[in-house]
Amino acid sequence: MRHDDWVAHYLPASWGPYARLCRLDRPVGTWLTLLPCLAALVQAADGWPTLFRLFIFSLGALLMRGVGCTINDIFDRDIDKMVERTRFRPLTSGQITLKQALVFLVAQLVVCALLLLAINEYSRWLALALVPIVIIYPLCKRFTYWPQVVLGIGFNWGMLMAWSDTQNTIPPAGIALWVGAVLWQVGYDTIYAYVDVHDDLKLGVKSAAMRFAEHGKLWISGIYAVTLALWIYSGFALNLSWPYFVIMAVIGAHFAWQMYVFSISRPDHNFMLFRSNMVVGVLIIAASLAGTLL
Question: Reaction catalysed by this chain (predicted)?
């Protein structure tokens, strides 16, 4: 967390802790939520989605990621004090109180609820089903080694809603694209989790990085391989044109590069590799556009 960024320079001091609580200062997570959702919108629309739908889903990704981060910090406020990377978060460091964080959470949920008016009934029910997933996620690391799976389900839920709102149905190809994105997130978030594995061991919390241990490269390579297979299947099922599969090959090469660079003994590389998955998100959109428009 940087204390000389745009939040410190351009927002009123009283707003800063709330911006950091919902991670406005750390937009990588928002992009990784939004980009696969935009790809699903393109595929569901068989080309360009409407500008209105693009706006609603982009705003929804921003808001729900903020809600998830706020809930996470509320549950983890005591744990975060003992982790070097998180001990300066607003709630943990005392910049805001628990009551203020809860009020802010309710305000975010109210705004999210207003977005329900802009989507169809099927998608509204899906949006409501997402809420318990977002709430449960921060608790998962207390009892399972697979919190990244729950995170991936929640982060990529908008992909299912993209199909339901555009076509009022979710075809098998859309589900395959979503499951692939869930596994993709399990892979890249596990890479990131290796940064905290020593702290997690001391605190008694769990992650896929702890489950994989020294076999992390093998596990993540397998996860990425299944991800790519599901995305390729989705393209065939939707009869997308050949450029889609060419870009899938590029994504496969990127995954191979990640695994070549990744090392559990070099956690300093992990955040760079985590951020590099924004490239994958852009490539998924490019593949979807190329496969539908060309």
Answer: all-trans-octaprenyl diphosphate + 4-hydroxybenzoate = 4-hydroxy-3-(all-trans-octaprenyl)benzoate + diphosphate
* Cα end-to-end span (Å), the chain: 42
List the domain range (segments joined by +) for residue 229: 6-293
The residue written with tokens 């009020």 in the block is 103
| C-alpha separations of 82 from 2, 76, 117, 198 in Å | 19, 10, 42, 11
Block residue for tokens 């978030």: 189
Domain of 253: which CATH number?
A: 1.10.357.140
Query: Does the pTM of the predicted model rise above 0.90?
Result: yes
pLDDT > 90: percent of the chain:
78
What pLDDT, on a 0 to 100 scale, did the predictor assign at position 79?
A: 83
- Name the domain count of the chain: 1
Give the type of residue at 263.
Answer: S
User: Does a structural domain hold residue 164?
Assistant: yes
28, burial (CB in 10 Å: exposed 0-12, middle 13-18, buried 19+): middle
Q: Which of 19, 29, 7 is nearest to 275 (CA)?
A: 29
pLDDT grade for 280, boundaries at 50, 70 and 90:
very high
Q: Residue 23 pLDDT more than 70?
A: yes
